[in-house]
Amino acid sequence: MRNITIILAFLALLATQAIAKNTNNNGDLFLPKEPSSKSSPSTSNTNPAQKISNSQPLTGGAGHNEPYTETEYQSWGDRLANSWVTFLFGFVLIIFSIPFLWFNERRSVEVSRLINRGAAICQEAKPEIVESDLNGELVHICGKIGNSKIIHDEDFGVTADNSVKLRRVVEVYQVQERSSSKTKKDQIGGGQTTTTTYGYDHVWSEVQIDSSKFKDARFKGMNSKVNFICHNQTFVAESVQLGHFKLNESQKQRLNNYEAITLHSTIVNSFSRRMRELINKLNWGSPNIYVDGNCIYIRQSHSQTPQVGDIRVSFKRVPCDMVTIVAQQSGSSFEPYDIRNRDFRLKSDSETARLLDEQNRNFCTSISQGCDSCCWTCCCCFKCMDTVLAAPSTIDWIYAARMTKQEVFRAEAKQNE
Known about the structure:
single chain, alpha+beta, nine-stranded antiparallel beta sheet, 7 helices, 27% strand
């Protein structure tokens, strides 16, 4: 009888919360009346994008400075259901975190031992001479790189000499949505009300922002006429020399010490025919094209305030400077050095490695046995962890600075901590 009473009381509480949720929409019982889930803006013909500068947040136009808000009520029963979902999700995470930590620790140990082994066998090489005796060996080499050919962006006529890479960054002036939420719990009943406030700002963005999903109808679709006439692009030098050596493609891609390029005002006269045709397709009449610092601006008008759809193009380069490389010498170039294929396998290096391999085999055996009795999904997850967290077996490092061999291996060991 006592259990039945408790059950009935629990059901009554759930019914009370349901009534409170329903009546709250009409502003009647239990809860104070909340703001409407959608603010109803007044009619205005003013375009907000033309009245707000780049550094100010957007509003709904003249007389519409109130932010747009949405409210959502969640009863105690809904919160309880969500808590169970969160609990189950957390329980699954705890189960899979144990093998994840094991795989991660094993990877850290293997990387540490690879670094130590590499430091022991690495030899010094000089950029002024290609020593045939070092071919196929792990070498440390340091010097200043160079590129005799000019890198050229033909669309805008921008060039970069003695550089590894030239990068074009294209941005368009758009409207971006931001949101912030506040949650208030009920004093009686255990429910809670979440109020979400949405704001809108002008930003220069490298990607097109989808304004069709904006919450506030006053700003929905404001980016619909945005047109990227070109996109970001990186131009890489064909040949970058380090003395008598040549950097491989992977090494050139990993050099990212960019610096801005200051453009001259006459660069607007160097646009290609293709680029001028793309600008004409914007149908802006006589667009305002000018240079400011390291940026080319392509704007719809001569007003001081940018408008949605205006384009800004900037350029930066990776200069040819001092680099340090630790990799396998392959003729007059470099390639990744595979330690495990050089008969330096972890299991034959020391007693610690032997124990590590034994633990690895035992763990994998237990996983295989568990796959027979456990679900197929768990087995796949464990194998995915083993693949994703597998320790690298090769050394191919490049730093945009002058570093000794000891400094390079010390830096790699610090990253592995």
